[in-house]
Write a structure and sequence with these properties.
The structure holds two protein chains of two kinds. By secondary structure, chain A is an all-alpha fold. Helix content of chain A is about 70%, strand content about 0%. In chain A, helix 1 packs across helix 2. Chain A is elongated. Helices cover about 40% and strands about 25% of the residues of chain B. Chain B is elongated and about 80 Å long. Classes of the chains: A mainly alpha, B alpha/beta. Chains A and B meet through helix 2 and helix 3 of A and helix 5 of B.
Chain lengths: ~120, ~170
């Protein structure tokens, strides 16, 4: 009897871990597909979209995650196929310097103006 | 003097911004991915339509032959419009037509071909659409003209009469 109990326990534990792994893949799949732009209904993410294209991308991402590919590898694969436009989160490169640095620049310039005004009013 | 200059400057700035954005409204904001003509075509193994045999891309695409890869489905209405051009190409000996059957039922696909004729030398089945992603496709129909493992031309949507002549010119 004891052996059966242990066996059941082991089986449950084994199954739990496999469920967990699948959950992880699903979570990552959702995270990745939310960051992908659907090319059919532009303005919607692949996760939100139900077009044939978006559904295929979901399957593809799932397959690649099961193969053990990382998030970055999947992004670079899709970037290679469709261009950087498919990513909602643009990468930092020479085309996007302006995009990424503009808010920082505006913050600094605005800060400098405020700082100057403050000094002026103090003295 | 300083007080008068500022409103004037602001109005000018606003007019510029207005016209800048107004012109921007007319630009198309639909993005179509570029085709990389320098890269080699993807390699893959896939099932043939209705058969269990797998075929690898190396067996399909040989050097010194022009191939027209056409992604189609029986449920796709524009595919019917371009079918006459594919039939025309299939009569020519210079070009081989490879079909990718996209998310289709085998029975419907066969009916489609029985009705309109079969221009394809080989039909690959793409049940979940992942093979089409390998090619950078995002809809049906899409066609690729391939020569020596390189894509010469890509047509998104049905092949138009213009595309038809362009492809004929390229294949000469």
């Amino acid at each position: 009897m004891k052996i059966i109990k242990y066996l059941i326990l082991i089986l449950i534990i084994l199954n739990l871990s496999s469920i967990k792994a699948e959950d992880q893949i699903n979570d990552l799949n959702i995270k990745i597909t939310k960051n992908l732009r659907c090319l059919i209904c532009q303005g919607q993410s692949v996760y939100d979209s139900d077009t044939e294209f978006a559904n295929s991308v979901k399957i593809l991402v799932q397959n690649k995650l099961r193969d053990g590919q990382s998030e970055k590898e999947i992004y670079s694969y899709l970037k290679d196929k469709y261009g950087e436009w498919i990513l909602y989160d643009p990468e930092f490169n020479k085309n996007t310097y302006f995009l990424w640095l503009l808010p920082v620049l505006m913050f600094l310039v605005g800060g400098a103006i405020i700082f100057k005004l403050l000094i002026k009013t103090k003295y | 003097m300083k007080v008068k200059f500022l409103p004037f400057f602001l109005v000018i700035l606003l007019i510029f911004v207005f016209f800048g954005f107004y012109k921007g409204l007319q630009n198309s904001n639909i993005y179509t991915p570029e085709v990389n003509l320098k890269k080699n075509i993807p390699s893959f193994t896939a099932k043939l339509l209705g058969v269990k045999n797998e075929i690898s891309s190396k067996e399909i695409f040989k050097d010194d032959v022009y191939y027209l890869l056409n992604i189609w489905a029986s449920w796709c209405v524009p595919c019917r419009d371009e079918h006459k051009f594919l039939m025309d190409f299939s009569k020519s000996e210079k070009i081989e037509i490879i079909g990718i059957n996209y998310k289709d039922k085998i029975k419907n696909a066969r009916n489609f071909l029985n009705e309109l004729g079969n221009p394809y030398e080989i039909i690959i089945s793409d049940l979940d659409g992942t093979l089409s992603i390998e090619w950078g496709a995002y809809g049906v129909p899409e066609s690729y003209l391939i020569y020596n493992q390189k894509i010469l031309k890509k047509v998104v949507g049905p092949i138009s009469l213009n595309n038809f002549f362009e492809i004929k010119d390229l294949v000469k």
